[in-house]
From TrEMBL:
One GO BP annotation of this record: photorespiration
SUBUNIT field: Homodimer.
Keyword list, A-Z: Hydrolase, Multifunctional enzyme, NADP, One-carbon metabolism, Oxidoreductase, Photorespiration
Gene3D superfamilies xrefs: Leucine Dehydrogenase, chain A, domain 1, NAD(P)-binding Rossmann-like Domain
Tetrahydrofolate dehydrogenase/cyclohydrolase catalytic domain span: 77-192
Protein name per the record: Methenyltetrahydrofolate cyclohydrolase
Family per record: Belongs to the tetrahydrofolate dehydrogenase/cyclohydrolase family.
Record-level GO cellular component terms: cytosol
Reaction(s) catalysed (UniProt annotation): (6R)-5,10-methenyltetrahydrofolate + H2O = (6R)-10-formyltetrahydrofolate + H(+); (6R)-5,10-methylene-5,6,7,8-tetrahydrofolate + NADP(+) = (6R)-5,10-methenyltetrahydrofolate + NADPH
Biological function: Catalyzes the oxidation of 5,10-methylenetetrahydrofolate to 5,10-methenyltetrahydrofolate and then the hydrolysis of 5,10-methenyltetrahydrofolate to 10-formyltetrahydrofolate.
Protein species of origin: Heracleum sosnowskyi
Amino acid sequence: MASASSSLMLFAADSSSTARLVSFNTTNKLPNGVVQFKRFISPQFGLQNAKTIITHVSSPSSYSVASMVTEASAKVIDGKSVAKDIQGEITAEISRMKNEIGVVPGLAVILVGDRKDSATYVRNKKKSCESVGIKSYEVCLPQDSREEEVLEHISSFNNDPAVHGILVQLPLPSHMNEQNILNAVCIEKDVDGFHPLNIGRLAMRGREPLFVPCTPKGCIELLHRYNVDIKGKNAVVIGRSNIVGMPAALLLQREDATVSIIHSKTKNPEEITKQADIIIAAVGQPNMVRGSWIKPGAVLIDVGINPVEDSTRPRGYRLVGDICYEEACKIASAITPVPGGVGPMTIAMLLSNTLTSAKRIHNFN
Ligand SMILES: Nc1nc(=O)c2c([nH]1)NC[C@@H]1CN(c3ccc(C(=O)N[C@@H](CCC(=O)O)C(=O)O)cc3)C=[N+]21
């Protein structure tokens, strides 16, 4: 078979053809060494992410063998880094606002109960607020509080001129009526974008919501900042929750994508995802989207943040997405990691919505 030098030349010839989808997926094992050629190159991001690993070079008596594995790995969409950039932009705007009109944006968070994950999110939000210069107000109520108490806090934040955004951490305890509570947040301070009037406007052509829900907004912002075309593309949203799937589908539609929504009753979901140029996965099922579900070159946004047991980690678990990253990164052209993908963007969009709200209320541009 191939000698070491001819295999390397073969690779060189390949790598000059940038735009072509080159794939030769062979795995040849020879008794005296291994020759492997494996390539998945996605056209959209060219070859910059192709990794060539010479795994084995041997020179038995008659010939030498180089084993070369070239696997394109998708571009990593670095949500953590984009979120950091955005927070820098927000910090600068807040300081300009403070200097020019003496106003500091304020965000109120209401947390009911003692779910550990909710407490962690709320703590992280508070830290992020501090770092950009947003003043945060926090109310923590016990699990057995009455709905009326929550409504009273919302009402007083609605009337507090120092507060420009109000977030009620979800999920609420099951004895509370989530609809009543979300309806009570005045739409001018609904930085989560969960008020039915904001969602309704998001759904209507020619109408503009005051706020767009943070997680879906973060997904679209990542696509924009990575120059992913959305217009005219096939986009698939997996999951139809009020807080992520549904608004994500509406946003993609507003960006002129052709949108399909997959949910628990969808038959043969993989046949639909296989057609998708863009997938947003938001179901909360660890590793549900397998490599075989993905069209080569697709762009993947993974909203899932699922803890799975892992005794090798200090916390006893690690976080995985809804998309099987190890398989998907060999087929997609770009993918968000978990953690470090959509999660940090959710917080950045919350800060951004809070700044927008303060600007609007104070008529500051
Ligand atoms: N009213 C309301 N608004 C929300 O926006 C809201 C909510 N309720 N309830 C819970 C979900 C969840 N959520 C996250 C935000 C950031 C990360 C995040 O930054 N995650 C890190 C990982 C953090 C870790 O290591 O644990 C990451 O993905 O890199 C995750 C999850 C906001 N939520």
